[in-house]
């Protein structure tokens, strides 16, 4: 008589019941709405509910109502950038099967930032759209370079090698950014404030310019969800299931690079959102990317919006940029993931 074996933890995680997932979806949506309301209510001055409703109706007669009107695009941009970075990180983790994959850790953000810096110095970039194109190009080149360096050797692109290649590349690109910008006093001050990473300068115009790139990247990533499930089984099994492994990796990586490059262009290099959120969401909904990717999009939007609110509240009337808040949260989480996962593949 044969003894039935229990399914492994990965299988159990992949088979989370739909009812539990839908329940968590409602919770995440409710938290996101509350965080966005907090974002328009709290800041250098706290605004009451009557002023919030009046401002949403188009009234800006009082200082409180004017503050709400100014905070609305900031809140929208924080949600969009957070969603883009979280989704980009989840897709990068799925493509590389690396639990440490994150646009900041792998040097993607720094590649986008260096491209913008070079563009500002050489061709005088001054429009958000031009920033976005340069940022996407820089992010793509940086991604290819890190993956190529991490693939050197007989073992191929292991998670540890990719993480080390990304860390080394980030350090090198950061030095290059300083070397490019520092001699140019006319752009150094504005660039340094953008370099920290934040959404304080949000306008409806900048949101409109970046939105088409974010939507395109979002659609590409979501369409790759089923294929990413196959990649999680290994390249050989994925190919046996009919997936064109190289094509799937390329297309999914393109979507992730578009999201990361566009988000970096409009908000600066914000790290660790793409690392923290996918790991948290796997605890809630399992490993199925068809559920995971929508969840990380919503949770990432809420996380960066909450970080922006915290940054405005802890040092009133001044503020701390959201990129600093996410770094303070993400650095310990990164250490935890390294110790717990021991840099294994997903």
TrEMBL record:
It comes from the Bacteria. GO terms for cellular component: plasma membrane. It holds the Pfam family FecCD. It is found in: Cell membrane. Keywords: Cell membrane, Membrane, Transmembrane, Transmembrane helix, Transport. GO terms for molecular function: transmembrane transporter activity. The chain crosses the membrane at residues 22-42, 72-92, 104-125, 131-150, 162-182, 202-225, 246-271, 291-310, 322-339. InterPro entries: ABC_BtuC-like (IPR037294), ABC_transptr_permease_BtuC (IPR000522). It is a multi-pass membrane protein. One of its GO terms (biological process) is siderophore-iron import into cell. Its main location: membrane. PANTHER family: FE(3+) DICITRATE TRANSPORT SYSTEM PERMEASE PROTEIN FECC-RELATED (PTHR30472:SF1), FERRIC ENTEROBACTIN TRANSPORT SYSTEM PERMEASE PROTEIN (PTHR30472). Belongs to the binding-protein-dependent transport system permease family. FecCD subfamily. This is Iron complex transport system permease protein.
């Amino acid at each position: 008589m044969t003894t039935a074996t229990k399914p492994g933890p990965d299988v159990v995680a992949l088979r989370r019941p739909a009812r539990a997932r839908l329940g968590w979806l409602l919770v995440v949506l409710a938290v996101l709405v509350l965080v966005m309301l907090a974002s328009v209510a709290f800041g250098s001055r706290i605004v009451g509910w009557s002023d919030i409703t009046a401002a949403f109706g188009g009234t800006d007669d009082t200082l409180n109502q004017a503050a709400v009107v100014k905070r609305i695009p900031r809140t929208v941009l924080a949600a969009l950038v957070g969603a883009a970075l979280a989704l980009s990180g989840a897709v990068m983790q799925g493509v590389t099967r690396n639990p440490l994959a994150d646009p900041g850790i792998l040097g993607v953000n720094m590649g986008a930032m260096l491209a913008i810096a070079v563009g500002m110095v050489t061709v005088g970039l001054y429009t958000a759209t031009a920033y976005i194109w340069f940022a996407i190009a820089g992010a793509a080149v940086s991604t290819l370079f890190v993956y190529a360096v991490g693939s050197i050797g007989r073992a191929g692109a292991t998670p540890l090698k990719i993480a080390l290649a990304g860390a080394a590349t980030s350090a090198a690109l950061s030095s290059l950014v300083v070397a490019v910008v520092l001699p140019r006093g006319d752009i150094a001050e504005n660039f340094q404030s953008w370099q920290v990473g934040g959404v304080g300068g949000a306008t409806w115009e900048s949101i409109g310019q970046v939105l088409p790139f974010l939507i395109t990247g979002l659609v590409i990533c979501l369409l790759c969800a089923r294929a990413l499930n196959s990649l999680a089984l290994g390249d050989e099994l994925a190919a046996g299931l009919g997936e064109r492994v190289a094509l799937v990796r390329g297309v999914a990586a393109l979507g992730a690079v578009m999201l990361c490059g566009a988000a970096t262009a409009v908000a600066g290099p914000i790290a660790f959102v793409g690392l923290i959120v996918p790991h948290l969401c796997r605890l809630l909904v399992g490993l199925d990317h068809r559920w995971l990717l929508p969840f990380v999009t919503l949770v990432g939007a809420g996380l960066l919006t909450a970080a922006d609110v915290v940054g405005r509240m802890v040092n009133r009337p001044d503020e701390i940029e959201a990129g600093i808040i996410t770094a303070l949260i993400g650095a310990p989480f990164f250490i935890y993931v390294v110790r717990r996962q021991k840099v294994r593949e997903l």
